[in-house]
Every structure is written in structure tokens, then in C-alpha cells.
Amino acid sequence: xxxxxxxxxxxxxxxxxxxxxxxxxxxxxxxxxxxxxxxxxxxxxxxxxxxxxxxxxxxxxxxxxxxxxxxxxxxxxxxxxxxxxxxxxxxxxxxxxxxxxxxxxxxxxxxxxxxxxxxxxxxxxxxxxxxxxxxxxxxxxxxxxxxxxxxxxxxxxxxxxxxxxxxxxxxxxxxxxxxxxxxxxxxxxxxxxxxxxxxxxxxxxxxxxxxxxxxxxxxxxxxxxxxxxxxxxxxxxxxxxxxxxxxxxxxxxxxxxxxxxxxxxxxxxxxxxxxxxxxxxxxxxxxxxxxxxxxxxxxxxxxxxxxxxxxxx
Length: 313
Hints:
Layout: E1 2-10, E2 14-23, E3 34-38, H1 47-61, E4 69-73, H2 78-83, H3 107-119, E5 124-130, E6 135-144, H4 148-155, E7 162-166, H5 176-181, E8 187-193, H6 200-216, E9 231-232, E10 240-244, E11 249-253, E12 260-261, E13 266-272, E14 277-283, E15 288-294, E16 298-299, E17 304-310
Parallel strand pairs: 3-4, 3-5, 5-8, 6-7, 7-9
Antiparallel strand pairs: 1-2, 2-4, 6-8, 6-15, 10-17, 11-13, 11-16, 12-15, 13-14, 15-17
Helix pairs in contact: 1-6
């Protein structure tokens, strides 16, 4: 059942619509839990598109297994997706810095308010993100420490590799996840892959995890896998170490994504393609696991190269 969440007329006879697809069980009792799956807040984040498709396809083929309501919002920023831009085009705004929105505000604030209003009252929200075009991320959930007790039980069911629990001070207060978590809807923010592309392997991994979660909360009685047990950054005193470029050039990685490195290992080189020289050896400052790796090879001084989950491997 396709429903319109927000609609507005635009110049030159154009318009913008934020739509959702509601999937309901064959028989409604009036007591069903509702789970919302949202993606496309940023126009260059496409990994969630495949996941939305797979969830709808599997449920439509096995509707008798569904025992709750699932609302799927595949594109909260349709203008960004249509124009291949991360933010809202023409306004140069990051929609994920506009929540909880304002019904009397400008277009972006109004849209954000309508989305929050539509999701409020649901049992759970899964907020699917990709990385940007510069970095590649393993499938992971990020949450602040104060929400960990509420969100970790759900995150552990999502078939993830990693859960990053970090201090509250690092979180933007105007994100959709923050707006919903502070208004009574537990919201798990998932990050994976790279901007402007779809990694089917990651999509399949998270899709299986979503069905595991739905089964655990009584909304799905079909067969599911046994989800992965994720590494959790807050356990075992693991720390996240970031390594940045000191010079500009072309980054050539010497490691692969999601592998272990030792302190002193070469992560890669930044080279000068005019002189044929190596400008910087990127050296791992600690033992750990590479969970973020530079994807786009052109770097400047200060560019993020890797994030390493430190501690014992």
C-alpha cells in the first residue's frame, strides 16, 4: 500500500513527494507492532535501495509469515537521489541536520517534521545509510553511549560485523535517529558500503539481519539465519583510531577492508604521479581491525585514510 508522507509543489511545474510502502499481515488484529525502515536521507546513499527491494520482495512472496506492520521509506530525499547530490539540491542542505523539523519552517524543515510525525508511535525504526563516495565501511551500527542499553539488543540481531558505541558529544542532535530516539522510538542507524553504489553482499547481510530482528520481536515466523555476533567497540576496552593523510597525492592501499593489522604495518602509500615518488607511507599506529578504508584515491592533507578498531585481535 503506497502512501504519501509529504508532498510539495516546486517551481517550473515540478513537485516533490516522499512516499512509503506499508506492508500489512493478511489478517489485522489492531494490536500489531509497527517497524519503520528508512533510507535515502542522503541522495548519494544507495545501499539501502537494494535492502528495501529485497525486504518487500520476500514479504510479498511470503505474506503469511508476516505478523506486524512494516513501513518502508526508500527515499526521504528524492530530489537528492534524482540529481546525484548528497543534500537537498538548490538549498545545499543536509536533510539529516534538519530533524525533528518544523511544520511551519521551510521545505526541508517541513518535510523533516512530516517524516518524524509519520514514524512516531512505531515500535522500532531502522535507519539505513551508506558511506560517502570517499570511504568504504563494513556493515555496522553506530550509537551513543546513553542509548546503548536500549539499542544494543536490536543491533546484535542485525547480522552486523561491528557496533560502534561512542560518546554523546560526537553525535549531531539534528539527525533523524537522534530525533526519534529522544521521542520514544528506538532507532538503529546502520552504515555500510560506499556512496553512489550498491554492494549486494552487504545488502544481503543486512536484509537477513532485519528478518532475524523481526522474528525476535514476533513480527515474522518464517525461517531466518543465525545472525553474526558483532564486535562491540565498548567491550574489551577497544578504541577507534583514525589515521589521516599528512600530504596530498594518490592513495594506494596495501591492506584490505576488515582485516587485522599490527602496529607498524604499512596501510598504504600516498604517491606523487608527476615525480614518481612516494610522499608518505601510511603506517598503522596500533594493532587492530580496519573497518573504514579510503575508497576514493585522491587525497589531500587531512583526508581520512582508515579507521582501526584497536585492541587485541
